[in-house]
UniProtKB/TrEMBL annotation, chains A, B:
GO terms for molecular function: DNA-binding transcription factor activity. It comes from Frankia nepalensis. This is Winged helix-turn-helix transcriptional regulator. Residues 1-93 form the HTH arsR-type domain. Signal peptide: none annotated. Pfam families: HTH_20. The lineage of its organism: Bacteria, Bacillati, Actinomycetota, Actinomycetes, Frankiales.
Length: 110, 110
DNA sequence: TGACACAGGCAACCATCGGTTGCGCATCAG
DNA sequence: CTGATGCGCAACCGATGGTTGCCTGTGTCA
């Protein structure tokens, strides 16, 4: 039973910088490439690229406002991503537990 | 409260091929680069590289056996990785819940 | 024992990706 | 109008996931 994972979603939240960006966006409600880059150890351009991939998988939405481009987290989609984290985690957890049981059974009978 | 994540561990299990490899190893108990590559859409060499990174972060252990090199999952370390998945998931889950509460409060008072 | 088969390591090469710098364009403020 | 600022685009670089090709070492079998 290999847990079905949306690979695009997963790899989107797989990048540590993107995770921090989502964290920052959630904390402050919204932000631009420039405002985010000020709170991160990377340049505005790098942040812009990341916002691009987050946008493509629907984890954030952009709202043009004047000369700015304000980004905001799509909580539903992020919820879906988080659920996948949980699903994969649970699947492996269950498998590990099963293996541990088998090991104990063997030890008992051996 | 940004959940502390071991970036090496995370990126090790972040790769979809490596996740499948861990799945396969857990399912069959052990395997070699060659045996794994037969069950994956990549070459033996690619698998060997992945086994290298999994080995470096301690997620698998190698046991030379004759002309083979048998790999096996270190369940403790994998457990640690899975726990991190859970931790990150929970952190975001909590934050999403908090935001939802705030949104509801605003709607009620506005 | 000698010849062949097969697992695995090493190296070169390629595409993609995260990151950088540099530049040009648009928009807002004085 | 002019300068500052926010953004997009392009070129470039290093790391990484992947490939093919080749060589070494270890079994196996006649």
């Amino acid at each position: 039973m290999t847990v079905a994972v949306d690979d695009d979603l997963w790899s989107a939240i797989g990048d540590p910088t993107r995770r921090r960006m989502l964290d920052l966006l959630l904390a402050s409600g919204a932000g631009t490439a420039t405002s985010l880059s000020e709170q991160l150890p990377v340049t505005r351009q790098a942040v812009a690229k990341h916002l691009g991939v987050l946008d493509r998988v629907g984890l954030v939405q952009a709202t043009p406002a004047g000369r700015e481009r304000r980004y905001q987290v799509d909580e539903v989609q992020l919820g879906r991503a988080v659920a996948q984290l949980g699903a994969v985690g649970n699947a492996w957890d269950a498998r590990l537990r099963r293996i541990k049981q088998i090991a104990e059974a063997i030890q008992k009978n051996g």
